[in-house]
Amino acid sequence: MGDSFRIHHTMLPVSDLDRSIAFYTRHLGMKVMGRRIDSTRNFAVGHVGYGERDTHPSLELTQDLNETAAVEVGPIDLHVGIQVSDLQTLCGALEKGNIIFTRALKASGPDNRRLTAWIRDPDGHAIELIEIRAA
Q1: Which of 67, 95, 128, 131 is catalytic?
Q2: What is the pLDDT of residues 82-97, one digit of tens each?
Q3: Which of 17, 27, 45, 51 has a CA 20 to 30 Å removed from the CA of 123?
Q4: Residue 122 lies inside a defined structural domain of this protein
């Protein structure tokens, strides 16, 4: 039964779709997997991620285009975890890009093999960056 399921996407509300896509592609190496207008809800929708949308999960970024839409979107009580191969290098690049860390790079776990750092996207959504070093 496990082969019948996979994570398809996680939806995050955003206040400016172009700004959010730029953040995820420029700073976290994602690519745009698709964009569309949802005319039923009057939302602009963009999917970003790693790989092809047919086979890889994505972040579905949704911007409310209605006249009554909030100017700012507050972060929701969740976080997105992104595993990377070289977190120390990524953190250096993020610092140069003026990305603010909510939790600095830290080693933890057995033998300090797990590295984590936390940042926020332009709308304040929490992102946990993770590197798990080989034993």
Answers
A1: 128
A2: 999 999 999 999 999 9
A3: 51
A4: yes
pTM of model > 0.90: no
Mapped onto helix, strand or coil, the DSSP state of residue 88 is: helix
Together in a domain, 83 and 50: no
d(CA 111, CA 16): 41
Residue 67 annotated as catalytic: no
Average pLDDT, the chain: 92
Rg (CA), the chain: 16
Give the SS3 label for residue 53. Answer: coil
Give residue 10's domain range: 2-64
Q: Name, in order, each residue with C-beta under 8 angstroms of 20's C-beta and a sequence gap of 6 or more.
A: 12, 14, 46, 61, 63, 121, 122, 123
Query: Is the distance from CB of 105 to CB of 88 less than 8 angstroms?
Result: yes
Q: Does residue 72 lie in a domain region?
A: no
**Domain contains 69:** no
Residues 84/35, Cβ–Cβ less than 8 Å: no
| Residues in the chain, overall count | 135
The count of domains in the chain is: 2
